[in-house]
Amino acid sequence: MHHARRALLDWHGALIAGSNTDAAKRLLQAYTEELGVGKCSVAGTSQKAFTRAAAFMNGTISHISEFDDIFRDGAYHPACPTISAAYALAESRDDSVEHLLAALIVGYEVSTRISKVIQPSHYEFFHTTGTVGVFGAAAACSYILGLNATQACDAMSTAGTFASGLQQAFRSDSMTKPMHPGHAAEVGLNAALVAQAGMTGTPDLLEGDAGFGAALCKSPRWNEVLENLGESWNIEQITFKNHGCCGHNFPAIDAVSHLLNDYPISLENIAQIRVGGYKATNEVCRYVHPKTPFEAKFSLTYTISARIVLGRVREKAFLPDALANPDIYALEDKVMLSIDQECADKFPVHRSAKVAIEMKDGLVYSHHQHTRHGDPDEPLTDQELLDKFIELTEPRIGLSSAHSLSGALLNSSPALISSLSKIWARV
Questions:
Q1: What is the Cα–Cα distance from 231 to 52, expressed in whole angstroms?
Q2: Which residues face 270 on adjacent strands?
């Protein structure tokens, strides 16, 4: 339950961080007819919405800022689809935070297990958060609705046939990618509601000859999907982002941080920065001299340079002043990225990088970052997670509200969902 509270806190931070972005404003404009009705809160507006619309909008908005959590072994962001759907449903039913937290544990467990056994081939073409996210949303909503086993199976199998989200959508500067988890949240919620009404699904949708696994990956390992079920909980194995960009950048950023903390490295004396990573780092984080915040978040050369010049890679690193910073621009030309076979072989179980910073006097400082700071084997502390939350929310809802919300999220009081929404719903 404590880890579920951490996840709910982190989702709120990502949601609020995305609430005043241009993409969020455009989304709300498109959903004008869906606002001003219903009981569910939507980030970026004081107007309420019906459950399905709120799930879609919050699922989208919470993914915009790239601060949402990760299940490393499945290359999957569970919070945006799972929490957005479950939160909307729970709020519409005047449910408690405690019941929501239990539902999140269920949704995370189901979807992370599916995500793990379809990788790494699934990630070659599909955005796991959009595809597998439907199962997290459906499972969590099934729990909230109190569906029996047959109904829950119907819900998840119905959700699975609507799974979608292509990698190509975030290999260009578009606003499509955040809508993947928004769609997944709405699909999973809808599937649970129709299952409750008696709509049946396809029980072998995952493993069938023309099912999810056959269509969306090369060799799904369904024999592993139930291993140690009930003995451990995957919500305890979640990565919380320490940087505001694509997670494939993180190992190299963390390696650079390690070197800057341990050695006398000055910006003006850097001759070259050599980075050895895995395939996804090269393919997804490929932008050089990015022109937009989106491109910057998917640029290894930029995020490493920003870490050195600015001291951290959070929201300020993607503002216009940072994108135009001549020191960052010049340093990018000194970053050399290549595939390191050891790092490649360990993906996706380990997200690692090898970084060597060569100085103009010939000295070379190197570090092998075996994992990301924030991964389950090097987790963010509760205080670090809270600091990140406050940094993201204070500019939008004020320090007092940020502390009130974090206190309500982290304590054990049996508050209603509506008590949380009252704090952030006017962002």
A1: 33
A2: 359
Q: Which fold has domain 2-241+378-424?
A: 2-methylcitrate dehydratase PrpD (1.10.4100)
pLDDT digits (tens, 9 = 90+) for 19-74: 999 999 999 999 999 999 999 999 999 999 999 999 999 999 999 998 999 999 99
Alpha-carbon distances of 333 from 232, 304, 384, rounded to whole Å = 45, 11, 32
Region at 398 (left for phi over 0; alpha for psi -120 to 50; beta for the rest): left
Residues 6+ apart with CB under 8 A from 246: 66, 284, 285, 297, 298
DSSP string covering 51-85: HHHHHHHHHHHHHHTS---BBGGGTB--HHHHHHH
CB 322 within 8 A of CB 308: no
> How do 270-277 and 335-339 pair as beta strands?
parallel
How many Å apart are CA 424 and CA 17, to the nearest integer? Answer: 11
Return the CATH architecture of domain 247-369: 2-Layer Sandwich (3.30)
Residue type for position 240: F
The whole-angstrom separation of Cα 91 and Cα 83 is 12
Polymer length in residues for the chain: 427
Which of 17, 105, 2, 6 is closest to 293 using CA atoms? 17
Find the helix or strand (DSSP H, E) in which 270 lies.
strand 270-277
- What does the block give as tokens for 424? 């952030």
Gap between the Cα atoms of 350 and 345, Å rounded: 9
pLDDT in tens, 83-117: 999 999 999 999 999 999 999 999 999 999 999 99
Whether residue 189 contacts residue 235, with contact meaning beta carbons closer than 8 Å, is answered with no
For residue 131, what are its two tokens?
Answer: 């595809």
Return the domain boundaries, the chain.
2-241+378-424, 247-369
Cα within 13 Å of Cα(218), Cβ side: 6
